[in-house]
Structures are given as structure tokens and as C-alpha cells.
Amino acid sequence: MPESPPSDTGTKPRQFFVHGVTADGRTFRPSDWAERLAGVLSCYRPGGMGSGRDAFIGYSPYVRPMVIGGVKCVLVDERLRDVERMAFDFVMNFAKDNDLPVYEGCVLPDRSGGAVR
To answer: What DSSP element (H or E) covers 116?
Structure first.
């Protein structure tokens, strides 16, 4: 994966989608993989993790599960790298280890070979 510019350069941070269909076309299991992955990374957020009465349960704004075209995905904002590089690397290695494609931005291939934007 190419290095990205720091997010404080004035450029919009890139976003990556970990797509829940393996390179050979199988739906990734378990069915709640996206929620689990985002849940593990929920503490990586701007300002760090709150505690006490300021703490709340929720996903990080940098790692969010979503469904795109009926397929579970995880949206990863490159600013996660600024908060904790190992967390960003963990997500990218998770995708690689499980043969899940990662797409930059909002361009995903559709099943007919074109692109969905």
C-alpha cells in the first residue's frame, strides 16, 4: 500500500473500503465481521478514548461498518494512521490475510465489471 501524505497538509484524507467479498467471490464470514472489526478499533478516535461519565459506546469515526450494494464493508479513514499506525496496519493486514479487496475512495466494482461510484 502506498504511503499517504499527512492529513494536516490541507488535502482531504483518503478513505478505504474493505470489501466483504473475497477475491474468489465468496462472502466473508462470520456475517458480523465488519461490526466486530470496527468494534475492536472503537477506541481510536480524535482526542483518544473518553472515560468515566464522558465515555460512550460507539464506533470510531475512522473505522465504521457499512453495507454497500448489499455487501458488508468497513470504511477506514487514513487519519487512523495518525492516531495509531499499528491500528491502521492491523486493518490493512486483516484485509490482506483474509483475501478481502481494499478500494480507495468510493469506487467499487459492480458485478458486471463496471464501477459503482
So the answer is: strand 115-116
Report d(CA 102, CA 91) in Å as an integer. Answer: 10
- Measure Cα distances from 30 to 33, 36, 42, 97 in Å: 5, 9, 19, 15
Ramachandran angles phi, psi of 81, nearest 5°: -60, -35
Q: What is the DSSP string of 11-36?
A: SPPPEEEEESB-TTSPBPSSTTHHHH
The values of phi and psi at residue 79, to 5°, are -65, -15
pLDDT tens per residue across all 117 residues of the chain:
444 444 455 678 899 999 999 999 999 999 999 999 999 999 898 876 655 555 567 899 999 999 999 999 999 999 999 999 999 999 999 999 999 999 998 554 555 555 554
By three-state DSSP, how is residue 2 classified?
A: coil
